[in-house]
Amino acid sequence: MSEESGQDKTEEPTAQRLKKAREDGQIARSQELAPAAMMVIATMFFSMMGHHIFSSMSNLFKSQLQFDRRITDKAELLPAIFGSSIVDGFLIVLPLMAILYVIAILSTTLAGGLIFSPKMVLPNFGKLSIMSGIGRMFGARAAVELLKAILKFTLVATVLWSLVTRQMDQMMQLGQMAVEPALVSAGWMIGESALWLSLSLLVIALIDAPYQRYSFIKRMRMTKQEVKDEMKDMEGRPEVKQQIRRRQREMANNRMIQKVKDADVVITNPEHFAVALSYDPTGDGAPVLLAKGTDHMAARIREEAQKHGVEMFAAPPLARALYFSTEVDHPVPESLYLAVAQVIAYIFSLADVRPGVPPMPKPQPKVPPSMLFDANGLKISSP
């Protein structure tokens, strides 16, 4: 073991590390899955369509071995007839070829996806090193591949021995049967044997696939220093910085919107600005600004206020003054105490309205000249 100094590869690979490995052509892929899947499908296809294929091929060979003097006397027709026979033979085996092609693509895709990396076709002179070659021959991966080959041989040999032992009596009877029944019986025995052999290879592939995934992730592990360096490199990129700032703004806005339900009043422009205020009448502090926004954010604040039954009060100059002069979670400035107090007193009075008692008149809060702002945040000079 190396020293516990951040040089041990104990950290899981980051998405950036896996992406770079994929660009270099390195993915977790089992070399056993695609051949095993193709053998299973091919065997099943032959068990269902084998009679049709062999019958068609037999008829094709019979037709080509029959000599017709009208054709043999005209040598110029032979190339056309020969070409037609090749096309007919190709069409007979085309369904099998198409199925195997599709299975090969699907098994490769499911095992890691289709990739093409220019680095995979470029010459790698580092592989010509004798020492690195010896390391690959006697390394852990080579030992695993050797063990896998031994297990594959053992399993296939066991299955094959079991099939031969069980079918020995049938094979001995083939010599006493007529040609066609013997061919049919032999075909079924061969198909059954091929199916069991391909299934045994599929078992090996299903064991090998998760191991290859585990082995790949283990090789891609990073040291703590590599993770830190990668984070620093990513954070230094302008697009990453912009994305981080955008996510931070979204998180801050979402937290701010969640506070609107705790507000006592939302003062609006009424469309372009909205500020949410909260006031504790039992305390001695000033009202606190819980949320503020313009345009789209202002609309979200109004929607949240309507959703939770928070009263809204239209006062454009006061809304702009609060928006440009007060930060979120900060008390309102002293110069706006009077205007804000008038609004909050009116809102609180609405909850105490009783039958026969006229409600408090709606105030017209006055904003000090020093706190007058236009829509762009520029102070409006007093006349």
List keywords for this structure.
disordered N terminus; name from scop; 383 residues; mainly alpha
Summarize the structure in words.
This protein has helices at 15-23, 33-65, 69-72, 78-110, 118-121, 130-137, 140-173, 179-220, 224-235, 238-258, 296-307, 316-325, 337-350; strands at 265-268, 273-278, 288-294, 311-314. It has 383 residues and is mainly α. It has a four-stranded mixed sheet with strand order 3-2-1-4, sandwiched between helices. The chain is elongated, with a radius of gyration of 40 Å. It starts with 14 loop residues before the first helix and ends in a 33-residue tail after the last helix.
Summarize the structure.
The chain has 383 residues and is mainly α. The protein has helices spanning 15-23, 33-65, 69-72, 78-110, 118-121, 130-137, 140-173, 179-220, 224-235, 238-258, 296-307, 316-325, 337-350, and strands at residues 265-268, 273-278, 288-294, 311-314.
Number of helices: 13
Kindly state the mean pLDDT as a whole number? 79
N- and C-termini, Cα separation: 80 Å
Helicity level: 55-70%
Number of domains: 2
Helices, strands, pairings?
Layout: H1 15-23, H2 33-65, H3 69-72, H4 78-110, H5 118-121, H6 130-137, H7 140-173, H8 179-220, H9 224-235, H10 238-258, E1 265-268, E2 273-278, E3 288-294, H11 296-307, E4 311-314, H12 316-325, H13 337-350
Parallel strand pairs: 1-4
Antiparallel strand pairs: 1-2, 2-3
